[in-house]
Amino acid sequence: MIRLLGLFLMLAAAPAFAGTLELSAPIEQGALVRGQTDPGAKVMLDGKALRVAPDGHFIFGLPRNAPAHAVLDVTFADGGGTRRDLAVVARTYDIQRIDGLPENQVTPDPETFGRVLHDIAMIKTAHAVDSDRLDFETPFLWPVLGPISGVFGSQRILDGEPRAPHLGTDIAAPPSTPVKAPAPGTVTLAEPDFVLDGGTLVIDHGYGLSTLYIHLSKIAVRKGDRVAQGQVIGAVGATGRATGPNLHWGVYWYGTALDPMLVAGPMPPAKN
Ligand SMILES: [Zn+2]
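Above are the sequence and the zinc ion SMILES. Below is the predicted complex in structure-token form.
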């Protein structure tokens, strides 16, 4: 009885924050943040509930233009909790202003335009998949090794008109170079012939994390396939609207595009 009372007093005197909360770095615009807390804890980001895996892992993404602050609230299974104010580091993106261009905009015919909208909607649907697979916990590998020919966040402003920012990483590689799954997952979209993107794949890694591959010359998997980390999923091409053979690689947390270079880390040297 006395021992029980002592335990009760100890619990009552314990600080409100009795559980674990660890977050990966960097906390910056475009980053995928990996968190670890106690199993059974509830996590809210800016008032919205995040999925927490049975082992306490969770993830969230910070968009290209994420505000400077975010608030993470964690409630542990014992009722205690903690609040973490996150300072989100702002990034400088490669913005090119080009003025005085000749008017060479081509208006697509209604049929092509309709197909483009359909393609976009299909990719959006794939990014919205919210599965409970734990593949997201596997650290990512690069799907292709090669020179980076396009970076996340870059944008062109033509005659004062901002164009859509570039929301992935382009890796230049010879045509037919195998593209490998950076982490295990499930194929949620496999289309050989999108108008702008050409051969297109989306892989779901669970908990809202998905990856996008476009301009592929070959697709080696089908929708619904399970893929292992490192498995060949397709080949580099220049299909769709591409300036040359490259892999456009995108990483998404639900609909939010993240910077693949921050997710995969520094690229290892290519083996010859
Ligand atoms: Zn690209």
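The first strand starts at residue 21 and ends at 23.
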